[in-house]
């Protein structure tokens, strides 16, 4: 639900003021990461920070309220956010093993040595 | 600045408002930002220019007026208002906004010929920004080098609309405008072909001189000024902004 809201606001932003133009886009991207299980604790922190900033400095009501769904959901349903995170620690926002998939395909390899251990990196 | 009674918001015959605990005198019609700059107090800004009507889009100059956030460039100064500007909360918000601008465009300071004279870069230093923090969006914005004397690098545009205003209001040519909405908002060239070569833009135009970043550049001028003598090498941005206002 929150991701849908985030996408909606990023789509509806007029682009006049910086906080809303960039903030809604960052929120939508961050929420997508969280929903697809790629999020980290830092993403949730950023989500709250960006939402607060939009509320404080946006030019109009769209930006000022765009962060509300995320802020309210974070305040009331924090455990369901945490459950979707990759890890509660800091992790790269980029899946290294996934990035190696084309290389594995090209070399026709799928053995253990061709996979990166994400938890170790 | 003359000290006056906090209860009587005037300085001589001019009305005053309170900015971070100091009385700031202003004239009728001045905004919070122009009055502050005129009195020697710096408020960070990017899309504002003393010669043009305030735009209020970058939101860097956001201040707290009587407890509510406003863009100080578009907020008229009112006698007796209590304005907060130089607070950790507002400066942190400003830093994040500058990070947003770095995230949104393609800003590579080390290879940019505006480096050292760039207001975005200077503002980032001023606000203590060390990284863009957010994942860059890496937009695809081709450069327009079609004009014989001018290069426009849309990658570095921060959508302040100063060139749009200068070209329309001073040069009367309307060479630039902003198109699109949301994150796809971008600077465009007003020509059938969309190419700079097909406009009447010339290097003497006011639009050439207002770009705060390295988006609108004169060709064959890159890296002429040695490091150490560039605009913000000589004076930090807060000194220049205040001095510029006093000249104007």
Number of helices of chain A: 8
Strand content of chain A: under 5%
Tell me about the largest β-sheet of chain B: 6 strands, mixed
Helical/strand content category of chain A: mainly alpha
The stretches of 5 or more residues of chain B where confidence is low (pLDDT under 50) are 1-8
Shape verdict of chain A: elongated
Our measurement of the CA-to-CA distance between the termini of chain B, rounded to an integer number of angstroms, reads 19 Å
Number of strands of chain A: 0
Please give a structural write-up:
- The complex is a heterodimer of chains A (121) and B (248).
- Chain A has eight helices and no strands.
- Chain A has helices at 2-12, 18-35, 41-57, 61-66, 68-76, 78-84, 96-99, 101-107.
- In chain A, helix 2 packs antiparallel against helix 3 (41-57) and helix 3 packs across helix 5 (68-76).
- Chain A is elongated and about 55 Å long.
- Helices cover 23% and strands 15% of the residues of chain B.
- Chain B has helices at 32-38, 88-104, 119-126, 162-170, 231-234, 237-247; strands at residues 10-11, 14-19, 22-25, 62-65, 68-71, 82-84, 150-152, 176-179, 186-189, 216-218.
- Chain B is globular.
- The relative contact order of chain B is 0.14.
């Amino acid at each position: 639900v929150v991701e849908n809201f985030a996408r909606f606001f990023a789509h509806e932003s007029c682009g006049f003021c910086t906080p809303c133009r960039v903030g809604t886009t960052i929120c939508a991207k961050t929420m997508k990461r969280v929903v697809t299980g790629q999020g980290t604790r830092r993403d949730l922190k950023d989500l709250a920070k960006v939402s607060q900033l939009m509320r404080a400095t946006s030019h109009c009501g769209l930006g000022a309220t765009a962060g509300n769904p995320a802020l309210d959901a974070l305040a009331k349903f924090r455990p369901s956010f945490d459950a979707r995170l990759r890890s509660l620690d800091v992790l790269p926002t980029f899946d290294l093993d996934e990035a190696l998939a084309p290389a594995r395909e090209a070399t026709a390899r799928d053995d253990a040595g061709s996979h990166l251990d994400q938890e170790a990196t | 600045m003359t000290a006056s009674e906090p209860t009587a918001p005037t300085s001589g015959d001019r009305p005053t408002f309170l900015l971070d605990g100091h009385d700031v005198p202003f004239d009728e019609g001045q905004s919070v930002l122009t009055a502050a700059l005129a009195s020697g107090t710096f408020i960070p800004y990017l899309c504002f220019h003393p010669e043009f009507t305030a735009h209020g889009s970058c939101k860097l100059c956001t201040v707290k007026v009587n407890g509510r956030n406003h863009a100080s460039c578009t907020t008229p100064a009112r006698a007796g208002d209590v304005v907060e500007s130089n607070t950790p909360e507002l400066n942190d918000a400003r830093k994040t906004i500058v990070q947003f601008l770095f995230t949104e465009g393609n800003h590579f300071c080390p290879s940019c010929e505006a480096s050292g004279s760039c207001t975005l870069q200077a503002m980032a230093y001023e606000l203590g920004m060390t990284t863009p923090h957010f994942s860059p969006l890496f937009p695809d914005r081709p450069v327009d080098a079609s004009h014989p004397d001018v290069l426009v690098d849309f990658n570095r545009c921060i959508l302040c609309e100063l060139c749009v205003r200068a070209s329309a209001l001073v040069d009367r040519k309307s060479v630039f405008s902003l198109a699109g909405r949301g994150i796809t908002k971008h600077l465009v060239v007003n020509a059938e072909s969309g190419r700079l070569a097909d406009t009447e833009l010339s290097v003497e135009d006011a639009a050439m001189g207002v770009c705060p970043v390295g988006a609108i550049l004169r060709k064959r001028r890159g890296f002429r000024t040695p490091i150490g003598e560039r605009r913000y090498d000589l004076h930090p941005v807060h000194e220049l902004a205040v001095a510029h206002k006093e000249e104007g």
